[in-house]
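quick q for whoever's on today - can somebody do inverse folding on this one?? i tried earlier but teh output was garbage lol. tokens:
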């Protein structure tokens, strides 16, 4: 069962900084580390935050929706964009959330 992205906000991800997320991409899962959560000032009904994940240089994941699995957050589908890739430093992926806040 997938976790709804509506239930995940910047604070939920911030609590998981420097933990592993797994992406099933081929024979072996690709392990990504959440290395940064950037939150922008909130505007009442809109939330904006950005996540950066670091992973291996190869395989480089395509810009598309990937299913991520995490021990505490569960499994969810998210759009990853590779923003840099260097043999020594690995690859960095970005996820941007810019959405209307859910009403309680």
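ok took a stab at it. sequence:
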């Amino acid at each position: 069962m997938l976790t709804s992205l509506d239930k995940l906000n910047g604070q939920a991800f911030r609590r998981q900084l420097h933990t592993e997320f797994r992406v099933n991409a081929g024979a072996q899962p690709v392990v990504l580390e959440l290395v940064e959560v950037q939150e922008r000032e909130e505007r009442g009904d809109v939330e904006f935050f950005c996540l950066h994940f670091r992973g291996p240089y190869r395989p480089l994941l395509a810009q598309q929706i990937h299913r991520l699995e995490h021990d505490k957050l569960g499994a969810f589908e998210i759009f990853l964009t590779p923003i840099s890739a260097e043999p020594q430093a690995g690859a960095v992926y970005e996820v941007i959330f810019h959405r209307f806040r859910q009403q309680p």
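fwiw The chain has one helix and six strands. also The mean pLDDT is 90. so keep that in mind when u check it
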